[in-house]
Write a structure and sequence with these properties.
The structure holds 2 protein chains of 2 kinds.
Chain A (H helix, E strand, L loop, with lengths): L7 H7 L5 H54 L9 E2 L4 E2 L2 H32 L2 H16 L2 H27 L4 H6 L9 H25 L3 H9 L4 H30 L2 H6 L17 H8 L6 H36 L1
Chain B lengths: L1 H20 L3 E5 L4 H15 L3 E4 L3 H9 L5 E4 L5 H7 L1 E15 L10 E3 H9 L8 H6 L11 E5 L4 H13 L1 H6 L12 E3 L1 H11 L3 E6 H6 L3 E2 L1 E3 L5 E2 L3 H9 L25 E9 L5 H17 L1 H6 L7 H14 L14
Parallel strand pairs in B: 1-2, 1-3, 5-10, 6-7, 6-8
Antiparallel strand pairs in B: 3-12, 4-8, 4-9, 4-12, 10-11
Helix pairs in contact in B: 5-7
Classes of the chains: A mainly alpha, B alpha/beta.
Chain lengths: ~325, ~350
């Protein structure tokens, strides 16, 4: 102990009567500490409130910007397919439809494949392969979306046009519903191709999150299941999946969020046509692709306002998805007790 | 201390170089003439030291930016009507001309083999002609074996002066196009896939079998796309080249429209390429930043005087001398500072 300092016990035992000056200095120190705490408290609260302010600012700006379009077209804006800059008649049906269809295709493909990859990596994969495959999946997530777009346009779309689409169109030509879903002509570029590219883009999200939660399943559960004679599939279906469903749903929602908002890759391969077509091979458009394509060049207030209204709709869709995810997680947690 | 000194000096340097940049001319707009503006700017900078900062954000963007007064001049491929020019106090003049060519992606066809005409292209983009072996196309191309392949019409997904000129031509030739689709920088297209920018259309046509698109001639050339011949108003088949572009430009009556806003689509003349197009510059008649506008006028005067060769190298068509003289006269009478003194006089 350095000279000049006093042992605490000494103070308590020998110097029980604290002098006035010592009390004052102690309260000054305490006051200073309290002040730092108050400032820190204030700073953190301001930071947190900034997020709220930003969010409400964005919403307010979108609502104000969208007001002219929504005022002019009213409720029919959501159900109108036409998008005519010449006559200034705009409707959001085609972009909303395209956004939902491409995201649905992406999730339909990415979720089963992602879950299978994750299970393989955690349960079945030989140790040597585990790291390379894991890293490859994570690298997929790191590729900028514009690269996916270029690859989609220059490599993937021509392949789809020349081989995949003619095959599908011919094969299902006489099957009732499928012939409508896979109707020609084969453009290569369209909602289907966009959905496939999106599937590749969301795959890493679904996979890496599922892998992490699969890893967290207590080995004793799986061992017990194997012990009573379960097959690998049964362990996956009845032990691993139920135990990890909260995390899996989290990964699903994260992927869906990316699919809904993805812009650059989609705009390259979707065809940017404001049409609602039953055929998945037909060109379409998504909300974010329409905004990216047309915003800089939109002449006229109503045109610009309609694009901002599209943005507001996308905001709303994303919000709904997040809210739904929260709600489902809450219910699952309640069930688990 | 030494560090502070260095930092101060660096800041001073940054400031001086910033002020040096401030005399640069700023412009924004059409992508169609961007290659030639960039080339002129480069040569102009070497000769005079003043630079041009041109952002090729598209014609619609150019009009927006000049109206918001964030740039010294705006550039557009779709001329503003006289009424709008008067209301906003803008002067408009054409800077250069170019041409739009149809490009296709068809196996077994060589560049310039295929011939198309306006009504056929209109029907393709209306979705009425769906296959390359359609009788309407076969009739124009006797002796060429056309594949039985679906036509993929490719067009611009962004607002575009190229689209405006293309649609203007189709509306001029096809009454159906005029009523069903109309003319604007962005359209409600009945069929086809959209791509962003001239380069986007070029890329999509190159990648998609059976595709047809329309691009500025330089983009077709750079991307080695298959261009087609066209049948013009006189019923003659013409190749896209400087001669046919110039023929179309020569026949134009520039003073027939306010602000020289003449669309060169479907011009008469045996040699005329039917999809020739001019591109315009927009400037304030009474600019806020007088010095910048004077610099911009100097730049365009220089381009008119010395830029013809460069324009021809890139397959653009320079403005005829007679029109240039009219434009210079218009500058000296209409573009003035607050005191009414003209910003450009032919002698300086």
């Amino acid at each position: 102990m350095a000279a000049g300092e006093r042992d605490v016990s000494e103070v308590v035992l020998k110097d029980t009567r604290v002098t006035a000056s010592e009390a004052a200095s102690r309260s000054a120190v305490l006051k200073r500490l309290r002040l730092t705490d108050t400032i820190f408290h204030g700073l953190t609260r301001t930071a947190a409130l900034t997020v709220l302010a930003l969010l409400s600012g964005v919403i307010i700006a979108l609502v104000i910007g969208a007001a002219p379009a929504l005022g002019t077209f009213g409720f029919s804006f959501f159900f109108d397919e036409s998008w005519n800059p010449v006559t200034e008649k705009f409707g959001a049906l085609a972009p909303i439809y395209g956004t939902l269809v491409t995201s649905a295709i992406a999730m339909l493909i990415a979720v089963p494949v992602g879950l299978m990859i994750a299970f393989f990596l955690t349960e079945l994969c030989p140790k040597v392969l585990r790291r390379p495959i894991g890293i490859a999946i994570e690298l997929l997530a790191g590729i900028p979306s514009i690269i996916y777009g270029i690859w989609g346009l220059f490599v993937f779309a021509p392949f789809v046009q020349q081989y995949f689409q003619p095959f599908m169109i011919d094969t299902f030509a006489n099957v009732p519903i499928l012939s409508t879903l896979f109707a020609g002509p084969p453009y290569g570029i369209g909602m289907f191709t966009a959905g496939l590219i999106l599937a590749i883009m969301v795959l890493p999200f679904v996979t890496s999150i599922s892998r992490d939660v699969f890893d967290a399943v207590p080995p004793v559960l799986k061992e017990a299941a194997y012990g009573v004679g379960c097959t690998t599939w049964e362990v996956f279906r009845y032990v691993v999946l139920p135990f990890t469903r909260v995390g899996v749903i989290g990964g699903f929602m994260l992927g869906l969020g990316r699919a809904l908002g993805e812009t650059m890759a989609v705009t390259f391969v979707i065809g940017n046509a404001h049409h609602v077509s039953a055929s998945l091979f037909a060109p379409g458009t998504t909300i974010s692709a329409s905004i990216a394509n047309e915003f800089t060049e939109a002449v006229g207030d109503l045109y610009t306002s309609s694009l901002i209204a599209l943005g507001l709709i996308l905001f709303f869709i994303t919000f709904c998805v997040l809210a739904m995810a929260r709600y489902m997680l809450m219910r699952l947690q309640k069930q688990a007790g | 201390m030494k560090f502070t000194k260095i930092a101060l000096m660096a800041t001073a340097f940054a400031l001086t170089s910033w002020t040096a940049h401030a005399v640069d001319i700023s412009g924004a707009g059409a992508t169609f003439p961007y290659p030639i503006y960039a080339k002129w700017a480069d040569a102009y900078k070497k000769e005079t030291g003043s630079g041009l900062n041109y952002q090729s954000i598209g014609s619609g963007g150019g009009i927006k930016q000049i109206k918001a007064k964030t740039v010294t001049f705006g550039a557009t491929d779709a001329p503003l009507p006289g009424k709008e020019l008067d209301e906003s106090g803008l002067a408009q003049f054409p800077a250069v001309m170019g041409a739009i060519v149809p490009v296709v992606n068809l196996e077994g066809i060589k560049p310039g083999d295929l011939t198309l005409d306006g009504p056929t292209i209109a029907k393709i983009y209306l979705g009425e002609i769906k296959s390359w072996d359609d009788p309407a196309i076969a009739k124009l191309n006797t002796g060429i074996k056309l594949p039985k392949q679906a036509i993929v019409p490719v067009r611009r997904s962004d607002g575009s002066g190229t689209t405006y000129n293309f649609a203007y031509y189709l509306a001029d030739i096809s009454p159906e196009w005029k009523t069903k689709v109309g003319v604007s920088t962005a359209l409600q297209w009945p069929v086809g896939i959209g791509a962003k920018g001239n380069e986007g259309v070029a890329g999509n046509v190159a990648q998609t079998k059976g595709a047809i698109g329309y691009v500025e001639y330089a983009y077709a050339k750079q991307n080695k796309l298959l261009h087609t011949k066209m049948i013009n108003k006189a019923g003659k088949t013409v190749e896209p080249n400087s001669a046919s572009f110039q023929a179309a430009a020569a026949n134009a009556d520039w003073n027939s429209q306010p602000g020289y806003g003449v669309i060169l689509a479907n011009q008469p003349g045996d040699q005329s390429w039917p999809m020739t197009a001019a591109t315009w510059i927009l400037l304030y008649k009474k600019p806020v930043d007088v010095a910048a506008t004077a610099e911009a006028l100097k730049f365009f005067a220089w381009s008119f005087a010395k830029g013809d060769k460069m324009a021809e190298d890139l397959d653009y068509v320079p403005m005829p001398d007679k029109v240039v003289n009219d434009i210079l006269k218009m500058w000296s009478t209409e573009i003035k500072d607050a005191g009414g003194k003209p910003l450009y006089s032919p002698t300086n």
